[in-house]
Amino acid sequence: MSGRPGEDQTIGPESARLREVRPGVHAWVQPDGSWWINNAGAVAGDDGVLLVDTCATAERTRRFLTALDSATGGAPFRLAVNTHQHGDHTYGNSLLPDATVLIGHERMREGLRTDVVIDGCPPFWTPVPDWGPVRRRLPDVAVTTSTTVHVAGRPVQLLHPGGPAHTTGDLVAWLPEERVLFAGDLLFAGLTPLVFMGSVTGALAAVDWLADMEPEVVVPGHGPVLEGAQIDVVLDEHRRYYRFVLDRADVGLARGRTPLEVARDTDLGEFAGWADAERFVLNLHRVYADREGRDLDPAAVLPDAVAWLGGPMPTAV
Ligand SMILES: [Zn+2]
């Protein structure tokens, strides 16, 4: 494959792997989990498959569907759920078979319906992503709070955290019998969380909500699969990060500083090593908007992340 000199070839589409975390429960893990490179998954039985999310590009989604097809012996893709509206989890929806019934939160559906990035990604990222031959495909079933679907004789609960968190229309997929949680982007394992289209306080509350489920295996929206004691470590990292963002934002607001000024003056400390650190300024913008009771236009604040970084945000999608 082509690549820029020095580019890490281990994070291309070919590096993604399907991992069976419990019998019939699969995680599609895509290194390195940075911008636009998501995790997905599936719950499978002889009678059919429930997919959890698709991928940003046609190529990455095709690889996921092909791997799943061989792992499940060609069982039909009966159902799919989108954990939220963002393109890294939804642009590949149109590669699903026509017969697949797609489920999403009603605000996720509206978010994807009005998404303009699928029609052409703005140059906030480098290289500018090319999604390939995808088209907007919206959920057939819109969920307002929570619902349960049954796949291969087992229940899969699709649960909404109760308010804005990563976005306004998040769903997680929870298997209560296997104690496996597909957390979507309520969790980023070892990468900077992104909540500028949701709520920092809501995302913080959602961490406790996830912890109360007491999962044994967590498939985060980005980053490696978590098991056992790793789960609490990552949940605590999220709590500390969100409290850090809230604290820095409130200090900045009190001093009349802009989010970009605050971000430039902030030592990210233990979070400095996480990929996509520039999300800090986006997350600050979310707190400012919420504290001031106004809407936030994502396209209007993304330039601040580019300014903080000193250039477009790198992506290997
Ligand atoms: Zn994502």
Biggest sheet strand order reads 1-2-3-4-5-6-8
Task: Let me know the average pLDDT.
Answer: 96
**Beta-strand level of the residues, as a percent range?**
15-25%
Distance between the termini: 13 Å
The count of β-strands is: 15
- As a percent range, the share of helical residues equals 25-40%
Structural class: alpha/beta
Q: Which sheet architecture does the biggest sheet show?
A: 7 strands, mixed
CATH superfamily: Ribonuclease Z/Hydroxyacylglutathione hydrolase-like
Rg calc = 19 Å
Low-pLDDT residue spans? 1-7
What is the class in the CATH system? Alpha Beta
Total helix count?
8
Number of domains: 1
Q: What's the overall geometry?
A: globular
| Small molecules bound | zinc ion
> What is the CATH topology?
Metallo-beta-lactamase, Chain A
Describe this structure in words.
This protein has 317 residues and is α/β, with parallel strands linked by helices. The chain has a single domain, classed as Ribonuclease Z/Hydroxyacylglutathione hydrolase-like (Metallo-beta-lactamase, Chain A), CATH 3.60.15. Helix content is 31%, strand content 22%. The chain has helices spanning 58-71, 87-90, 106-113, 200-212, 229-254, 259-265, 279-291, 298-309, and strands at residues 17-22, 25-29, 40-45, 48-52, 77-81, 101-105, 125-126, 141-143, 147-151, 154-159, 172-175, 180-188, 217-222, 226-227, 313-314. The strands form 3 sheets. The protein has a 7-stranded mixed sheet. The protein has a 6-stranded mixed sheet with strand order 9-10-11-12-13-14, with helices on one face. Strand 4, helix 1 (58-71) and strand 5 (77-81) form a beta-alpha-beta unit. The longest helix is centred in the last third of the chain and has 26 residues, at 229-254. The two termini are 13 Å apart. Mean pLDDT is 96; it is low at 1-7. Residues 38, 86, 88-89, 185, 221-222 line the site of zinc ion. This is MBL fold metallo-hydrolase. InterPro entries: Metallo-B-lactamas (IPR001279), NDM-1-like (IPR050855), RibonucZ/Hydroxyglut_hydro (IPR036866). Residues 37-222 form the Metallo-beta-lactamase domain.
